[in-house]
């Protein structure tokens, strides 16, 4: 599985969330840490859905960078 992840810089750390998995979030002090934490969060989130007999959402979100003139 492959999901889009949004990582945001906060005041003292980083936060991440998965648009296609509501409630799947993580934080970390560094980019590497938040990436590892969100990977683990995705795994546990999907595992929990399976255990509860709930459908696993398809990865539908798309991430693009758009250039704009300043």
Examine the secondary-structure arrangement and name the CATH architecture of the domain at 6-51.
2-Layer Sandwich
Q: From the 3D structure, determine the CATH topology of the domain at 6-51.
A: Double Stranded RNA Binding Domain
Q: Point out poorly predicted stretches.
A: none
Number of helices: 1
Portion in helices = 25-40%
Give the strand tally.
3
**Sheet with the most strands, sense and barrel status:** 3 strands, antiparallel
Mean pLDDT: 96
Share in β-strands = 15-25%
Strand numbers in spatial order across the main sheet: 1-2-3
Radius of gyration from the alpha-carbon trace, in angstroms: 14 Å
- CATH class categorisation of the domain at 6-51: Alpha Beta
Briefly say what this structure is.
The protein has 70 residues and is an alpha+beta fold.
Quickly list its features.
30% helix; 3 strands; three-stranded antiparallel sheet; 1 helix; 70 residues; 17% strand; alpha+beta; Double Stranded RNA Binding Domain; flat
Task: Describe this structure as you would to a colleague.
The chain is α+β, with helices and mostly antiparallel strands. The chain has a domain at about 5-50: 2-Layer Sandwich (Double Stranded RNA Binding Domain). The protein has 1 helix and 3 strands; from the N terminus they run βββα. The protein has one helix at about 30-50, and strands spanning about 5-10, 15, 25-30. Strands 1-2-3 form a 3-stranded antiparallel beta sheet, with helices on one face. β1 (about 5-10) and β2 (about 15) form a beta hairpin. The model has no long low-confidence stretch (mean pLDDT about 95).
């Amino acid at each position: 599985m492959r999901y889009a992840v949004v990582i945001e810089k906060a005041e003292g750390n980083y936060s991440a969330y998965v648009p296609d998995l509501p409630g799947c979030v993580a934080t970390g002090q560094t980019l590497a840490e938040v990436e590892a934490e969100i990977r683990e969060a995705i795994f546990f989130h999907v595992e929990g859905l399976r255990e509860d007999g709930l459908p696993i959402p398809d990865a539908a979100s798309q991430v693009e960078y758009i250039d704009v003139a300043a």
